[in-house]
Amino acid sequence: MTGIFERKTGHEQVVFCNDNETGLRAIIAIYSTSLGPALGGVRFYPYADEESATNDVLNLSKGMAYKNAVAGLHYGGGKAVIFGTPETDKTQQLLWAYARFVESLGGRYITACDLGTTIEDMDVISGETTHVAGRSRRMGGAGDPSSVTAYGVYRGMAACAEVCWGVTSLRGRSIGVSGVGKVGTLLVELLVAEGASVVVYDVDERALEHIQRTHPAVEVAADHNTLISRDLDVYAPCSIGGVLDRQVAERLRCSIVCGAANNQLSEPTIAQSLHDRCILYAPDYVVNAGGVLHVAGELDGFDSRLAKHRASEIYDTMIKILRASETDGLPPVVIADRLAERIMSYRG
């Protein structure tokens, strides 16, 4: 594995955490604190090895820094990962051990929910550190951010529709949603309510069964390859990162890619590949910022209604990015990256 310093990723701090008593193995990565304390979730995942976990936390923490900057938050970007399978390895003692490492950073990093962690976990973590957000309402937190995340993606999709087709409505549009967990399911609900034609896929059969029970008109694709090979207006990745690799980018038959997943691009060059094929790629960290807006509201003392209002402004941010993309002839993610870097540099 290439050393952290040799990678020249721009991160301020990377902390490897080990607790023999609980079995905790975790990595906390702080990309930037130029705008304020680094805010970002903790992912609990059975990584194949240390290198894959390190790559993930480095990419995710950088994405959080850019997300928070473009969203107009006074927070920097950070992320944490815990090695393990949540269903079998997660214990209260392990979460407390993780929380003590967070506390040792003195507020430079504020942890929250991510893949494999829950609001209830944040309640547990708050027993050992004050630097945590995304807690339950019972514990004084803002509760589940999923609905605000889904709404922000929906608004981002409307902005893409406006630029592509001259209308914000998604009625009658064919939309493929890959991943119907909490956020994906809520996005499907919004799309169905507007009259879109929705087809979904997920590796979790129970999630698909839930969608079929609650929305009988939604079609289920046989597999992910079937989904991406369809003629779609919009493809919405709402599950794991890195799904947009070179093979998928070449096979996609859609006008827009706009989804809730973090780090959708397997490598930066994929953005140009999609742009060359006239597929509009909505920068993931711009459209999925509703969740962090909700979590930041818990820290800053505003309620969920204001968080949803701020998530609705993702539409305006996306319109500005997409219009600049048209003017400059550059992929939207390049425009978004430059905007984030300018904000961080100015405040730094």
Q: And the CATH topology of the largest domain?
A: Rossmann fold
Architecture (CATH level 2) name of the largest domain: 3-Layer(aba) Sandwich
Low-confidence stretches: none
Give me the number of helical elements: 16
Per CATH, the class of the largest domain reads: Alpha Beta
Domain count: the total is 2
What composes the largest sheet?
A: 6 strands, parallel
Radius of gyration based on Cα positions? 19 Å
The structural class is alpha/beta
Dominant shape: globular
**Percentage of residues in helical conformation:** 40-55%
**Through-space gap between termini:** 31 Å
CATH superfamily of the largest domain: NAD(P)-binding Rossmann-like Domain
Order of helices and strands: HEEEHEHHEHHEHEHEHEHEHEHHHHH
Largest sheet, order of strands side by side? 8-7-6-9-10-11
Mean pLDDT: 94
Beta-strand percentage range: 15-25%
Please supply descriptive tags for the structure shown above.
single chain, 348 residues, Rossmann fold, 6-stranded parallel sheet, 5-stranded mixed sheet, 16 helices
Describe what this molecule looks like in 3D:
The protein has 348 residues and is α/β, with parallel strands linked by helices. It has two domains: 122 residues, Rossmann fold (3-Layer(aba) Sandwich), CATH 3.40.50; 173 residues, Rossmann fold. The model has no long low-confidence stretch (mean pLDDT 94).
